[in-house]
Amino acid sequence: MDFPFSILKRETFFQLLCVFFAQRWPQQAVALWRTGLLLSFLHICTCLEEECVLGVVGRPVSLPCFYPQLLTFKDFSIEWRKDDKVVLRSVFENSRNIEELSADGGTLSSNATEAGDFSLELPAVDPAEDKRNYGLFLISEANQSDALCTVCLRIAASFSRPLVRREEAADRGNDTSFYCHSAGGFPEPRVHWLINHTAEPPEGSVRTVAALLPDSYLYNITSYLKVNVSKALSVSCAVENALLNETFTSTSYGTPPSKVAGRASEAMWIFSTGLSAVVGVMVAAGVGYQIHLDRVSKRKKLEFQYQQNKRGYKRSRLTDDAESIVETEVTMVESKESNV
């Protein structure tokens, strides 16, 4: 592990000072040497890399600091600081926490004197605390150590599910405008638009405005998209919060046939099919009835002709019989005359 030059310089100076004290005042030099060993150990521990803790707005958060080496001391004081401001001070005597003063409602972990857990418990956080550095310091009567633990705090808050609205205006030609709004999140999010779930809109067609609320430090985000798309195509707006690894998406599905319209179309199709079937049956019945009428008319016509022919036959037969009778009577008269 590489140590900063300033730390090595302080340690070298302290060693030289201890040698000087050992030559002049041997007994005092032993105590000074022990103190030097402790401070050197604290310097080494504070060279660890700073870590960040994510806090969610309105929820409690714990800033971790495990330092069981402090339990070897009976009487000591510690301070938690936010940047340069003291937010908590605790005094320990005989390994017991006898006094604790807090500025922001923070408290030490309940396992401080048992497991060396000196974590700072904050009841709630807000966006104003984002990117603040916290440190735990050991305080003695005349000296102050470097930070035993350092923690950076990041703040995040979830955005609401975006509201997407489609606006079509005749005076804008073929372009369609889309409006996407999401509120109450932190930090400022990324906004993504997708056409038909896959294609990105053309460059320059998107304008996004983020408004920081002065009271809560939360963001309201509004994004506008103006693009030439078909009414049937879907357009999606996604709001991404990278810190929380959250992405909320809403989609405008254009104007496809709705379920009601689909049912109406289905009912219309059934009605038209039924109507066509009824008309077909009526036409078939009409044609059949017309054929029946033609057959009846033809039969009546044939019967009439038959009756006419039959009457003519009877008349001609009566005429032949009359002529035969007349001829017979004439023959008889002539026979009588010849006899006379």
UniProtKB/TrEMBL annotation:
A family per Pfam: C2-set_3
Keyword Disulfide bond found: yes
Bilayer topology term: Single-pass type I membrane protein
A cellular component annotation (GO) from this entry: external side of plasma membrane
Source species, domain of life: Eukaryota
Signal peptide (from-to): 1-47
Primary localisation category: membrane
UniProt name for this protein: Ig-like domain-containing protein
Organism: Takifugu bimaculatus
